[in-house]
Amino acid sequence: MARLRARRLPERAVSFLDDQDLKQRVTDAALDMAKARTSAVARASEAEVPADERESWALAQPDVLAAQAALDEARRALAAGTLTLTFRALPRPAWEQLLREHAPTEEQADLGHEYNVETFPAALVSASSVDGMSEAEAQELLDSWSDADAKALFTAALLVNQTMRADLGKG
C-alpha cells in the first residue's frame, strides 16, 4: 500500500517556440556535424588509423570540433528561445470540484459538454500549472494567443488530468 500511496501525480510539459529558424538552425548544424564526422572517419581510414580508434580520432579533428561547437550553440539558442510550461494532474477531488465550479450552461450541457467552455479552460490551466499561473493570466494567454497555441495550452492541462496510466490488459 505504501508504494501506491507514494505514486506521484502525472506531469506533462508543453513547449512553445516563436522563432522556427532556431529549430532549423539545430537541424542544419546536426547535418553539418554528421557530414564532418563522416568525412573525418573516412580520413581516419585513409590515414590507416586502427579501426577501434577511428571514432575518437574523428571526434578530435578540428572540423568536427567546430561542427560540434556550432551544434551546441544552436541547441543552446533553441533552448533559450523555447518556453516550456509544465502541468500536473489534479487529485480527483480537486478535479471534481473544478468541474462543479465550472459546470456547463444549459445550452452547453445540451451539446454534451462536461464543463463550461468559457470558464473551465483558464481555471484548469491555472489549477494544473506547476509554474504558478493565475486564472487571470491563463485567461489572458488563452484570449491573446493564436487558436492553435491556446488549444495546445488547454490540451496539455486537460490531457495530464485525463490520461490513464493504468494497464487494464488481460494479464
Characterization of the model:
The chain is mostly helical. Helix content is 63%, strand content 8%. The chain has helices spanning 2-5, 20-46, 54-59, 62-81, 92-101, 106-110, 120-128, 135-144, 147-162, and strands at residues 11-17, 82-88. It is elongated and about 80 Å long. It starts with a helix and ends in a 9-residue tail after the last helix.
Summary?
The chain is mainly alpha-helical. It has helices at 2-5, 20-46, 54-59, 62-81, 92-101, 106-110, 120-128, 135-144, 147-162; strands at 11-17, 82-88.
Largest sheet: 2 strands, antiparallel
Helix content: 55-70%
Q: What does the radius of gyration come to?
A: 24 Å
Q: List the strand order in the largest sheet.
A: 1-2
Structural class: mainly alpha
- Summarize model confidence as the mean pLDDT: 95
- Report, as a whole number of angstroms, the end-to-end distance: 21 Å
Instruction: Categorize the overall geometry.
Output: elongated
Topology:
Layout: H1 2-5, E1 11-17, H2 20-46, H3 54-59, H4 62-81, E2 82-88, H5 92-101, H6 106-110, H7 120-128, H8 135-144, H9 147-162
Helix pairs in contact: 2-4, 7-8, 7-9, 8-9
